Amino acid sequence: VHIVDFVIVCTGRYGDIPKMPTFEAGKGPEVFKGKVVHAMELYSMDHNQVDDLISEKKIVVVGFQKSAFDITAKCASIN
């Protein structure tokens, strides 16, 4: 078990609508006690807001493309 403050879902930054995976009832983001953010939400914030959001937090990045790599690097540089 890993305890994190929030999850960043990186599944398609370059579309018009965030692509969120589907889950069975009671097994999705609603059961997580922390914050779930899509990459598109982070990219809509200014740099100071992003820095404040991820500073000194335990974060899990879900995804495996450019946005996931970019956000992982940003999280690592701040923390």
UniProtKB/TrEMBL annotation:
Keyword Oxidoreductase: yes
UniProt-listed Pfam families: FMO-like
InterPro entries: FAD/NAD-bd_sf, Flavin_mOase-like, FMO-like
Keywords noted in UniProt: FAD, Flavoprotein, Oxidoreductase
UniProt keyword Hydrolase, yes or no: no
Recorded GO MF terms: flavin adenine dinucleotide binding; N,N-dimethylaniline monooxygenase activity; NADP binding
Residue runs in coiled coils: none
Family: Belongs to the FMO family.
UniProt-listed PANTHER family: DIMETHYLANILINE MONOOXYGENASE
Identification of the protein by name: Flavin-containing monooxygenase
Provenance organism: Nymphaea colorata
